[in-house]
């Protein structure tokens, strides 16, 4: 992973959790070849699609010189009545979200 290729390391993305794509607004340029082109995604692995947990990992690489810019990790899990999402990537940032699978979210009613 290369902190010289990104504008900000692990930006806070709030509730945004993505299992695909690249956060191009945070991409400065490739430190090794000075190109700022769309990146490639390589070594994508997806585990646990049929269970209550799903993990997706891949690498963002420069499409010109194949320099590894960042490693992307995404996790989805079901925990009781909730779906939990997490993302961790130097380029795309950190994010997490929890969503109820029930029609009424008791947490929202308590906040009101």
UniProtKB/TrEMBL annotation:
InterPro entries: Churchill_sf (IPR038543), Transcrpt_activator_Churchill (IPR009508). It comes from the Eukaryota. Keywords: Activator, Developmental protein, Metal-binding, Transcription, Transcription regulation, Zinc. It holds the Pfam family Churchill. Transmembrane segments: none annotated. Belongs to the Churchill family. PANTHER family: PROTEIN CHURCHILL. This is Protein Churchill. The gene is LOC106460859.
């Amino acid at each position: 992973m290369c902190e010289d290729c990104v504008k900000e390391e692990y930006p806070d993305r709030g509730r945004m959790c993505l299992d695909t794509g690249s956060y191009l607004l945070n991409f400065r340029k490739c430190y090794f070849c000075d190109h700022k082109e769309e990146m490639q995604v390589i070594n994508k692995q997806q585990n646990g699609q049929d269970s209550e947990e799903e993990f997706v990992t891949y690498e963002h690489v420069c499409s010109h010189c194949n320099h590894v810019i960042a490693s992307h990790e995404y996790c989805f899990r079901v925990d009781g009545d909730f779906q939990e999402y997490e993302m961790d990537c130097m380029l795309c940032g950190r994010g997490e979200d929890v969503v109820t699978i029930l029609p009424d979210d008791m947490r929202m009613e308590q906040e009101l």
